[in-house]
Design a protein that fits this description.
Layout: E1 15-17, E2 22-23, H1 26-35, H2 46-50, H3 61-76, E3 80-91, E4 100-112, E5 119-129, E6 135-146
Antiparallel strand pairs: 1-4, 2-4, 3-6, 4-5, 5-6
């Protein structure tokens, strides 16, 4: 079984509703915020956030973006060589502790790589939705992915020194 799509698998206009959702916990938000040295108290000080316009902790947007990106990997970039860029990043609604994020993407363009014959470039629009169906973010992303016959991502699983698994 092969997880993910190669260049030849993508069709312009195809929509992927990525299979997993991810609920953001207070621990996720606090750890990410402190790990990244973000000192905005709206992310980790409930007393402070209570007096802000939303009246509660807001999930760090870096975490929200990273989760939605991660949710899209299984379909859009499992066989990526590298991300080439993000454009038009929009944070359209706040994400709160306890929200569950989902992601969906539409393929906008595909083309062979001019410099790497074993790869091509896929451009997509991805959006993140919360559990209520509200769009909380979107962006346009270009990623270089392998062609199906590229040797680079094959045969990387190690051979067990004790032999194959048996019944």
């Amino acid at each position: 079984m092969t997880l993910g799509n190669y260049l030849e698998d993508f069709t312009v206009g195809a929509v992927y509703q990525h299979p997993l959702g991810r609920t953001i916990s207070e621990a996720d938000n606090t750890w990410f915020t402190l790990l990244t040295m973000n000192t905005n108290q709206n992310h980790f000080n409930a007393h402070f956030a209570a007096s802000a316009p939303y009246g509660r902790l807001i999930v760090n947007s870096g975490l929200s973006v990273a989760v939605v990106l991660g949710l899209s990997v299984s379909d859009m970039s499992q066989h990526a060589i590298m991300n080439l860029g993000w454009e038009e990043i929009r944070l359209t609604a706040p994400v709160f502790v306890g929200d569950t994020l989902y992601a969906e993407s539409i393929v906008l363009e595909t083309r062979p790589s001019a410099s790497r014959p074993y790869a091509g470039i896929v451009t997509c629009r991805t959006r993140g939705l919360n559990q209520d169906g509200d769009e909380v973010m979107s962006w346009r992303r270009s990623v270089m992915v392998y062609r199906r016959d590229a040797p680079h991502d094959k045969s990387h699983f190690p051979v067990a020194k004790t032999g194959p698994l048996t019944v």
